[in-house]
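Batch job 17 of 40 flagged for manual review because the log was empty.
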Amino acid sequence: MPRLIKVYDTTLRDGTQGEGVAFSMEDKIRIAQRLDALGVHYIEGGWPGSNPKDLRFFRRIQDAVLKVAKITAFGATRRPGVRPEEDANLQALVEAGPPVVTIFGKSWDFHVTSAIGTTLEENLAMIADSVTFLRKHFEEVIYDAEHFFDGFKLNRDYALRTLLAAEEAGAHCLVLCDTNGGGLPHEIGEIVREVKKLVKPTTPLGIHVHNDTECAVANSLAAVREGISHVQGTFNGYGERCGNANLVSIIPNLMLKMGLECIPEANLRELRDVSRFVSELANRKPWQAQPYVGDSAFAHKGGIHVSAVVKHPETYEHVNPELVGNHRRVLVSELAGKSNILWKAKEYGIDLDKDTPDARRILQILKELEDQGYQFEGAEASFELLMERALGNHRPFFDLEGYRVTVEERREGEEPVAEATVRLRVKGIPEHTAASGNGPVNALDHALRKALEDFYPNLREMTLLDYKVRILDESKGTAAKTRVLITSGDGDETWGTVGVADNIIEASWRALVDSIEYKLRRDERQGRR
């Protein structure tokens, strides 16, 4: 049977120390429930001695039904010269009432004398007294040896004495921490081997590392390779400075690469969804190139690559993307080949025979447009419409007869007023509408929708989510060609469109029209009007 590695998540505590990461108490409850459903063994909910919100979390989580995870409170050893029974931090941990507690103590003699200002012997007593006291109140007491690897390098004997103090007091797990994140995999492995020679064979060891050398995942795996059975980290690698070890990479590496038991195998398919869920509640944009779960993790662009992947996915994929809840993507660009076109046609439900010249013609159009400045990687809705037009399958939902946009500053110091008028023919009926907006593109969008919504009510569901402008030839200054990328959505789907022109308004118009055409075409295919 494979060796079991227990996963300890500290997203709700250490992860929130990352710049720009914050969770409400209700967010923390929801994340804890998702992590439990994934199969995480320990969820560190926060430091109840540091703020009222974390204390409320521990009270509120008691009402939640968790199937696997043990909720853990975090805190420090007693203060110098204070009995554990009188230490406010330790009392707050007891009051929080979870089944497991994790405390950290100093392993680096420099921190003992300079940071907390006490003696080396008193620090050992602080560790032992705190573990002994907490054992009376909790099912498990986990000891985090803060700055252990730095302490070991500079004063090996003292760092090891701090571990023995926690072990002799009855700590259930000794966690070796690379708090500054400066270790490298070979150093981590060597030091773990030295620790194993000293502690009892029955004492579980854990690893907690930060990512300041971009080695947090590698360091965690190096520790596991040496026998560590408890791995701490955060989802998406959130954490102070450069972040913590990323559990989203560690979990599949343990299971798919090292053949170790971790979360339930079937739950691994939820990994991408949980990663996205945590990103959403953290109000952080998902990392596109994140290993295993990012949009680009299994995206293929080069024509030779796509041709090979179609025949044998393992030629350019190290695992099956479905194992982690991801999916294969084929990008279209000037690097594309016929295989890219055929793949996208199948994805869009377009009947395209590889033995006809259609694929070559579409590929030629694609490369010509990209040479003009178009980019379809983030605008696949525009590429789908391009294919339909090239195949003669496209039926426009309206015909443009003209548009006009004006921007007027009526009084000095006031915001300019943007107005747009459009003249269309919709289902044979002429429409002439005007609208104002927050800028010329917004006004044009409002006027276009105003002309179409009576004919196509579903457009009221659609919103413009993002608008990006790129100058393609900076040497031409204000006369440069412009590319506009628009992201739109309707609650069910999000799609991107692109427009390129010498005039930013015309480029925006082309992207807007594609966005609306895509929405109407998709709804028509789904039987919606």
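Reviewer: the log was empty due to a logging misconfiguration, but the result itself is present. The domain at 6-263 is CATH 3.20.20.70 (TIM Barrel). Unflagging and moving on to job 18.
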